[in-house]
Automatic annotation (TrEMBL):
Species per Swiss-Prot/TrEMBL record: Tautonia plasticadhaerens
Signal peptide: none
Keywords, ordered alphabetically: Membrane, Transmembrane, Transmembrane helix
Residue ranges crossing the lipid bilayer per the database entry: 186-210, 222-240, 376-397, 403-423
Protein name (record): TIGR04222 domain-containing membrane protein
Length: 517
């Protein structure tokens, strides 16, 4: 920050949103209206302050995350505080907030603004934006657009099974780190403890599973067993998956080949392989990086008006990396396709497949047999308990008894089974360690991002994804075309110190305002 920016940040940081002595302060209202804890709401207010600074100092339009946008929306309702005290007294100019016009172009624009905002956050504050307030663009313009107001007097709120399972896995991972052991013993202890809890649950004598007919038990007695058994089985299945995936190995330190070096030496880690390792299992990220590099080095050109890639024949074609050759070949064969379709076509090429195979040979990716074991092993206990639940449901229907809650539990078991079968195992323990070992380079890459022509660009793309691309010029325009096309509805929220901005989707109902007397 320069002197003027430091002064501005000092004023914003000192700006008080909570009215002293008010029973319902701004922060408490923000927490209440969003179902947050006060500690999280206080952090949201701090991120909102940082967003205000970026809107004034970054030199480009900015877009907030949904969490920060909630603080912005609420502050706009405090009209005197926002327009008079903040804009008039602290910022020195208005910061407007209005609705998006919708459509693919608007959505692409807000994707771009959001990426710039994250880049400026790193540049000015020297740290990564916290993921729980600044999620990736895919979540910001996907998952986060589905928030809705719900009257809790009329409705119950239950998490989806997938959300519940993600939280469960995160907590189990923390337990594993705390005990510093492989998860096999932890899984056994957890499963045994929870199953014993089910056997001695209220209304069920100890040893109730041994020698006693489950068909003779009442619905409540069976649920006293089945509920903890379901929880224990889901816990055990996820611990089994982590145990199956946690092979031995540590971080390797391979040499990084230049992007133009097609060396087959096993001692080197392919630069585009590094991108695939870090950003996979989708094969498109290496191709996205290759296309950007080809445009930067002049092998390809991009027609911004027609939104098409154009080949520029050169003797350099013979020295290109195989992934770059695959991207160039896709453009030559299918010039009329959209840029995103070309990226997808190249990602399915044998050249990209060979990069993945090489990572697998180096022990960085799970082999096909290991991936099968990781998928199937956790499913076995789930299927056993699911069959038990389905049997009891059939018995309940035959007897004319209510089975709704049992159906819900079986549905949870079924979803957990599908998640295990569908989720593709990717990195080995060694691969995870290698990716983590690159984190210390992130700060340097963010502060001084390499151009796509630089040998360090694959490393930057592996760490930052699409955020590694320049936001200006031809590559800035190209970046919006080599990602999946946005939905036609459009979404986004933005603002700038000159009075421009937009907001739409995700609960942003078109808030706006203006200076008035």
């Amino acid at each position: 920050m320069n002197t003027a920016q430091s002064t501005l940040w000092g004023r914003i940081a000192a700006f008080e949103l909570d009215e002293p002595g008010a029973p319902l302060t701004f922060t408490r209202r923000l927490a209440r209206e969003n179902g947050w804890g006060e500690a999280y709401a206080r952090r949201a207010v701090e991120e909102y302050r940082r967003f205000l600074f970026l809107a004034m100092a970054s030199g480009h339009p900015v877009t907030p995350s949904d969490q920060v946008d909630q603080a912005w929306h609420l502050h706009l309702t405090y009209t005197r505080s926002y327009w008079d005290d903040l804009c008039g007294g602290v910022l020195g100019r208005p910061l407007h907030h209005g609705p998006t016009r919708g459509g693919a172009e608007e959505s692409a624009k807000f994707h771009d603004w959001y990426g710039r905002t994250l880049d400026s956050y790193r540049r000015f504050f020297g740290e990564e934006p916290p993921a729980d307030f600044w999620p990736p663009a895919a979540d910001r313009f996907g998952r986060d657009l589905h928030f809705a107001r719900v009257n809790l007097r009329d409705h119950w709120l239950l998490p989806r099974p997938s959300t519940l399972l993600r939280g469960l896995v995160g907590r189990l991972s923390a337990v594993r780190e705390a005990v510093g052991a492989r998860p096999g013993p932890v899984a056994a202890v957890a499963a045994i403890a929870l199953m014993l809890a089910g056997c001695v649950a209220p209304g069920l004598p100890m040893g109730g599973m041994g020698g006693l007919g489950l068909a003779d038990r009442s619905g409540s007695e069976f649920l006293n067993l089945f509920v903890p058994l379901t929880v224990a089985t889901i816990v055990c299945s996820w611990l089994l998956r982590r145990w199956a995936a946690s092979g031995e190995g540590g971080p390797s330190d391979p040499e990084f080949a230049l992007a133009t070096d097609a060396s087959k030496g096993k001692a080197k880690l392919d630069p585009y392989g590094l991108i695939l390792l870090a950003r996979g299992p989708d094969r498109t990220p290496p191709v996205q990086a290759a296309v950007a590099r080809l445009v930067e080095t002049g092998v390809l050109s991009y027609d911004e008006e027609r939104k098409q890639l154009i080949t520029t024949w050169s003797d350099r074609d013979r020295t290109l990396h195989p992934v770059e050759q695959a991207a160039l070949g896709a453009v030559k064969r299918r010039a009329s396709w959209t840029t995103w379709k070309l990226v997808q076509a190249a990602s399915r090429s044998p050249e990209v497949g060979s990069v993945e195979d090489r990572l697998r040979d180096q022990g960085l990716l799970q082999s096909a047999s290991e991936a099968f074991r990781i998928r199937v092993l956790p499913v076995l206990p789930l299927v056993v308990v699911l069959v038990l639940g389905l049997w009891r449901i059939g018995l309940g229907i035959e007897r004319g008894r209510p089975v709704g809650f049992l159906v819900l539990l079986c549905g949870l078991l079924f979803v957990a089974t599908i998640v295990h079968l569908v989720a593709r195992p990717w990195r080995t323990r060694k691969g995870d360690a290698l990716v983590r070992s690159m984190d210390h380079l992130r700060e340097r890459i963010v502060k001084d991002p390499p151009s796509p022509a630089s040998p360090e660009f694959p490393l930057a793309f592996a760490l930052m994804g699409m955020a590694a691309l320049p936001k200006e010029g031809t590559l800035g325009v190209l970046g919006a075309e080599i990602i999946p096309p946005p939905s036609s509805g459009g979404s986004g929220c933005g603002g700038d110190g000159g009075g421009g901005g937009g907001c739409g989707g995700g609960g942003c109902g078109g808030c706006g305002g203006g200076c008035g007397g």
